[in-house]
Design goal:
The structure is a homodimer of 403-residue chains. By secondary structure, chain A is α+β, with helices and mostly antiparallel strands. Chain A has 17 helices and 13 strands. In chain A, the strands form four sheets. Chain A has a seven-stranded mixed beta sheet with strand order 7-8-6-5-11-12-13, with helices on both faces. Chains A and B meet through helix 11, strand 10 and helix 17 of A and helix 11, strand 10 and helix 17 of B.
């Protein structure tokens, strides 16, 4: 029986925990807000709805320690993955007895939490036969995918921010300490680097906006090279359109402040007959960057340092978008030329376990590769500041309308 | 020396008239608001900037009486064209001495105003040679193009409204009397049918919105058959999208209430990732219809009767849009199957002059042709009423933002 984090069936259990514990105590204790898609709630659901299987269950494993156990016979959980179970005391870095009681399980049914980068074990004869991997291959304790990406992108020091651009845009940063992290209101985890913290905020659906433009305005469909050429065409369109997009203002279709009180807060505003789809492309890049600045401003307002941003994923491939982000946020943006930061981060942690690197940061330094460093354009600063103010005012107006 | 109504050079002269007469007295006296593109202001400009030519000018003719004069040697102006010179007393139907004085000309320099449909004269030998038209061909006093269209579409009775859909959408209706017309705030002319009045309001740029979608979202460009196929595709898209356009709200890019205080009030709102360009197409048709209802509501609020709407021009060719207009306005919409209402109206007036018809209305009855009559869909009434309220609230919000 497996549950994904998108699985909302445990809504009743989340309500029950909320009623007995309250939202804020759970958030401060575990680092994560009370949502129905986390293991605490899923296990409680399982206990209530499948009592026989629940009673017969020997262990409750997650994807990572389940696979680790099948490969090596050893049980080992890592801190950043454990942070998202809502079963761990974030400050202590260990399973919390009271939360285990809510779930109805015992400590011995979970894997012990050990640092990322320690050796879990070696691949057994049986696992070697099943997987084709050489017997005795070292298996090292990894990390949650966002934290692997943080390791692979060097976002392990306070002041650094990782922006992973997919359908959602996910911000990951490194608060100075747990208290700063918790006061930011972001989702807090123990970092893959021991002693460091991580704070995550997701702008869900923001990144999907350009994909929408590609599909519905740029002729869409297609895959592979054909689709990449459409992205190139959109980049060209945005590049040849001056800052301000001819006045067109774009509000992201999901995950933005405009949508915070309504299901559909997106839109193109200030449209005139003289505008073309080029303006729409530029407006999307600027609007999403404004939304991002808003989130980063809120982070900074709670004491999280933002000295530079490392951008990875789809939007980072654009020759235009990262510079727009740098210009609107007034923050230097680094775009690594090596792709797949998460995979590289996992490999770095494996290297730490294998003794290739003294620690994850040494691994990043060794495998960093060339980077494209973009400085904010001073000449655009005032213009974009005014545009950002206009963006916020409009998004608030839209939110008030939907509410 | 010729001036078109788009020629704004006489802005200073309009300001001068405004300062000495005031906007409202001019509007009540002439039926038309004081704008810098009308002959009163153009002639005053000509007097000031070209004093020698002005002093030497024997006559001041407009396109219609100039051509009539060249064809027949006779001077004859029609009431609906004279209404738009800002030199005519709308109530009296004759040139106004005080206005002529402002322009600096004398009555003998203008053609006498005679009813539409009277004979101007016959084509002279010289004109026959120059044009290839048979000598002695009858030339009949016509009307302003919008009023020719009104005659050709049967919009000559109170309660009837002509909607001419081009880049702008132009509403022409028949107020019961001059006082009702003037209190509507619309631009008032004497109708091509004697004793009737006409009131015009232009929603400038509203109709251009769908053309914008075709050009910038539907792959655009092309002409003739190819372009018509794109319109067909947009019609299909709008037809397969249910009323409400999935919640997408469109504000016209020009000429709408949202744009009344700013240069660019257009936009697509409530956009979600799940929307496609089909929703944009339907949203444009519904949004423009909401804007139209707003204008028609304002007409009705001032006492102008609106019993039915006759739709001609680009949008009338759509198999979807006229029904959306009928549904959102709760007014029956007639779409004549015969095209080119203005040309037909001019021909009807010629027929009146030639004695083929007793009057313009008899001519329309004879040449009416088949019509597509669309009734408002009762089942959609409440839904569209709510959408219209939402549309108005949003347009007002946008206007307040721009102001």
């Amino acid at each position: 029986h497996a549950f994904s984090w998108l699985d909302q069936r445990a809504d009743e259990e989340a309500k029950h925990v909320r009623a007995t514990w309250g939202d804020e105590p759970i958030r401060v204790l575990t680092g994560w807000p009370l949502i129905s898609g986390l293991p605490l709630e899923h296990i409680a659901w399982f206990r209530r709805h499948c009592p026989a299987q629940f009673a017969a269950a020997e262990r409750f494993l997650f994807v990572n320690d389940f696979i680790g156990c099948r490969l090596t016979g050893q049980l080992c959980m890592d801190p950043s993955d454990a942070s998202i179970t809502q079963l761990m005391n974030i400050a202590a870095g260990d399973w919390d007895e009271r939360l285990l009681e809510v779930a109805g399980i015992e400590r011995r049914q979970l894997s012990p939490i050990q640092p990322s980068g320690v050796i879990v074990g070696r691949i057994t004869q049986e696992a070697a036969a099943a997987t084709g991997l050489p017997q005795d291959t070292l298996v090292v304790n990894g990390a949650h995918d966002q934290y692997c990406a943080a390791v692979g992108a060097g976002v392990t020091w306070p002041g650094r921010v990782l922006l992973s651009c997919g359908t959602a845009w996910v911000l990951l940063t490194v608060p100075e300490n747990l208290a700063t992290g918790l006061s930011s209101g972001m989702a807090i985890s123990r970092h893959a680097v021991e002693g460091r913290w991580g704070a995550i905020r997701s702008l869900g659906g923001v990144g999907a906006s350009l994909e929408w433009l590609l599909d519905h305005v740029w002729g869409g469909a297609g895959a592979g090279k054909k689709r990449e050429r459409l992205y190139d065409a959109i980049d060209d369109a945005a590049a040849r359109t001056p800052p301000g997009a001819g006045g067109v203002l774009f509000l992201p279709m999901a995950g933005g402040h405009a949508a915070s009180y309504g299901p559909a807060g997106g839109g193109f505003l200030n449209l005139a007959i003289s505008h073309t789809r080029d303006h729409l492309a530029r407006a999307i890049m600027e609007g999403t960057a404004c939304e991002l600045r808003w989130a980063v401003d809120e982070m900074q307002a709670t004491g999280i340092e933002v000295a530079e941003l490392t951008m990875v994923g789809g939007a980072a491939k654009s020759p235009v978008w990262p510079q727009i982000v740098a210009d609107i946020l007034h923050v230097p943006v680094t775009v690594p030329s090596l792709k797949d930061a998460a995979t590289r981060g996992a490999a770095i942690l494996a290297g730490v376990g294998a003794g290739c690197f003294s620690d994850a940061e040494a691994g990043f330094a060794a495998w960093r590769g060339p980077e494209n460093r973009l400085s904010p354009t001073v000449a655009h600063r005032q213009f974009y500041d005014e545009r950002y103010v206009q963006y916020q005012a409009t998004a608030r107006l839209m939110a008030s309308r939907a509410g």
